[in-house]
Amino acid sequence: LNKLMKDNNLEFHDLFSCGTYVYLWKDHPLADKTEITMEELKEYPCLSFDQGSNNSFFLAEEVLSTYEYKRIIKANDRATMLNLMKGLNGYTLCSGIICENLNGSEYCAVKLSTEETMTIGYLKRKGIPLSSIGKEYLKEISKYNGQA
Questions:
Q1: Strand duo 107-112 + 21-25: pairing
Q2: What pLDDT, on a 0 to 100 scale, did the predictor assign at position 148?
Q3: Alpha-carbon torsion 37, 61, 75, 107, what sign?
Q4: Over the chain, what is the mean pLDDT?
């Protein structure tokens, strides 16, 4: 990642770290738990965002991308992922930051029992000031610092 960023004149800015959460349908059999283990998840399909054929598994969006899942389904759009969560009791791993405006209120995030953390941040071009939209994004994402 460091080489890719250097080669493309990018810099990473760390915003905050957070725990890892299981994102699932609110009526999933594990949705009422306060914490979920990987063992409890093994019989449910893990949903992973397909990065396309030109991307390395080193650039996977999900935390624990090298974990050996019993069942994994790859999708390339949010609507499909949400339908699979509901229809197959699938799940994905995330930061715990959920936008109901995008996904609706039928989904929830439950803490995953792991020491694994996620670093939330952003990339920008070196020497180029952040755009007004970029500044607005930082203002919005900073509202979640420490809440996930």
A1: antiparallel
A2: 44
A3: positive
A4: 84
Cβ-based neighbours of 81, under 8 Å, separated by 6 or more? 47, 49, 75, 90, 92
Section 72-87 average pLDDT: 88
Residue 44 has pLDDT above 50, yes or no: yes
DSSP secondary structure letters along the chain: -HHHHHHTTEEEEEEEEE--EEEEETTSTTTT-SEE-HHHHTTSPEEEE---TTS-GGG-SSTTTTS--SSEEEESSHHHHHHHHHHH--EEEE-S---HHHH-SSEEEEEESSS--EEEEEEEETT-PPPHHHHHHHHHHGGGTTT-
> Which tokens hold the place of 138?
């930082």
Q: pTM to 2 decimals?
A: 0.77
In 3D space, the residue among 67, 73, 77, 79 whose CA is nearest the CA of residue 103 turns out to be 79
pLDDT in tens, 85-110: 999 999 999 888 877 777 778 899 99
